[in-house]
Specification:
The structure is a homodimer of 330-residue chains. Chain A has 13 helices and 12 strands. Chain A has 330 residues and is an alpha/beta fold. In chain A, the strands form 2 sheets. Chain A has a 6-stranded parallel beta sheet, with helices on both faces. A 6-stranded mixed beta sheet of chain A has the order 7-6-8-9-10-12, with helices on both faces. In chain A, helix 5 runs parallel beside helix 13. About 2% of the residues of chain A have low confidence.
Chain lengths: 330, 330
């Protein structure tokens, strides 16, 4: 198999130019590219990605694992992350972990074998064991939404308890006394923090946790619709519901309207995230805005610092602020 | 560096088991996994992904390149694709080509270097030269939305001319005579076909192409809003607008409402895609539904056939059907 040097000699260009043609990471004139590609064709050269990666100790690629690519929060986060990474010429690959019986584990193993330079894990529960192969391969990791079970890792998140506490307290201040909760799927971050914040707000207001009024969904619109139907089966219905994300709140709105009730007159609804759909739905959804794009950008900056560092920095925990956006559903 | 055989011997398991632990593609009992990982730790073993890939001639990974991960059409397509691929145990990696000055070229070069088994290129213009490295690496390719400039490639698409013709003709049949068009960004598939279908429908109905009424957007909500504002600057405004996708139609709706006009009484709007937001926006958007999920599934099936075939199959062109969904914007 010919070497890069052989290709460079035959094409009459420098090895650096051949390398730029192969990586696509630096501009090369179309004529030069054509020449180099023709020579490569003639010589039957196959770039050896691993050898290249080992030489430079960089592959120029970062992977982000998300639980549901069809929840617009995650594409927005990926966009912010990509914006950070482009500044240093990294490519981002997105893995949608949420479908099928594939675990986070398989995607992490794949990322390790492909020798990505960094991994961002968004709102997914991972085990310490899953992370051992990552650490062993010296791949930098930043997590979003939950601290990873390894020492010294970085996490970017909203303060989920405060998000839920503030949203629920807003409903209390609007005069609601019977407030239900549609929570995220148990075991998935940030379901726990948001459920705790809801209960803390009720307690703070001196309200009892109403019987059968804390129901879990699965973060999807359909799951929110099903959870709301269960809540509406109760003899005494709530006057307001705090939903742990916008997709579930939109599903809850579907169920309230299908039951012949009005939002917000009969049941007020608050979501979390402020995805674009929150402002499109009618009545427009009141929500606790979490800046997905900013979270992605911050995660990208932390990751680039780790990738560039000789020794791993001390683990940092960055909290992004949330903000109540009042619309017509309350 | 120890071999897989050395790890297997030290751990007292088969090489196959070690390989399963490393790939994460087959279940291994937690106790065995721990043992194997401990041995790997002690021996300082690093899996050599390229060597493995060359041995098996498969990496178990497929990449999909999309122009805009924040347009919900593409996550839906990716979900359908992932569903197909999971049946044969493939991981899917999603690349968002649309941000920054990264070209399709850089992502393709990266996919080639990583030796993915297949690539799906969705609604992106690629050059024959870009595809040469892909073909040279014997990576299977399926495209969505536009036929690639290589012999024997597979394409899955809607009939874009017919989509636009049918949408515009529907507006004609509703009595509209002055029908504008907000087109996709020139040079990006399927902008051309949808612009042609619009003009063909006007001609078929014996209507002139109204002056200044065919404006191009960039497939985004903001771009649609800007395009609509330009259309509304004309002395004689249209009574209806055919928008080449839903995001631009929603942006056009923003502009119509901001101008103090009503949808559909003053300006009727039709989009294309039927993303979830089309049914959430008020008035709900009439649109020509393109089955993103089905396109993804079909693309996945074609790709798996190509990956599994000894000789590349003859290029196929699969057309998915479109369907008018009438809501309140017309």
């Amino acid at each position: 198999m010919p070497t890069i040097a052989a290709v460079a000699a035959a094409a009459g260009v420098s090895k650096t130019t051949v390398s730029h043609v192969l990586s696509g990471k630096r501009p090369v004139s179309p004529a030069t590219r054509r020449t180099v590609l023709n020579v490569i064709d003639e010589l039957g050269f196959q770039p050896n990605s691993l050898a290249q990666a080992l030489r430079s100790r960089r592959t120029g690629t970062v992977a982000v694992l998300v639980p549901d690519v069809t929840n617009p929060f995650y594409p927005a986060l990926a966009r912010g992350l990509q914006r950070s990474l482009l500044a240093q010429d990294y490519l981002l690959l997105l893995a949608d972990v949420g479908i099928g019986d594939r675990a986070v584990h398989a995607f992490l193993a794949d990322a390790v074998q492909r020798r990505v330079d960094g991994i961002v894990i968004a709102a997914l529960a991972v085990t310490a064991e899953d992370l051992r192969t990552v650490a062993r391969a010296r791949i930098s990791v930043v997590s979003v939404g939950v601290r990873l079970p390894i020492d010294g890792s970085d996490v970017v998140s909203s303060d989920d308890e405060a998000v839920a506490f503030d949203a629920t307290t807003y409903l209390v201040n609007r005069g609601h006394r019977r407030i239900a909760n549609i929570g995220g799927q148990p075991g998935t971050p940030p379901a726990l923090g948001r459920a705790k914040g809801y209960r803390a707000a009720l307690e703070h207001a001196g309200l009892d946790l109403p019987d059968g009024m804390q129901v879990v969904g699965d973060w999807t619109r359909d799951g929110g619709e099903r959870a709301m139907r269960r809540i509406l089966e109760h003899a005494t219905r709530p006057t307001a519901v705090f939903c742990a994300n916008d997709l579930m709140a939109i599903g809850a709105m579907d169920a309230v309207i299908a039951a012949g009730l009005r939002v917000p007159q009969d049941v007020a609804l608050v979501g979390v995230d402020d995805i674009e759909a929150a402002s499109l739905v009618r009545p427009a959804l009141t929500t606790m805005r979490i800046p997905a794009d900013e979270i992605g950008q911050v995660a990208g900056s932390l990751l680039l610092e780790r990738i560039g560092a000789d020794t791993a920095p001390i683990g940092r925990s960055i909290r992004v602020s949330h903000e109540l956006v009042v619309r017509d559903s309350t």
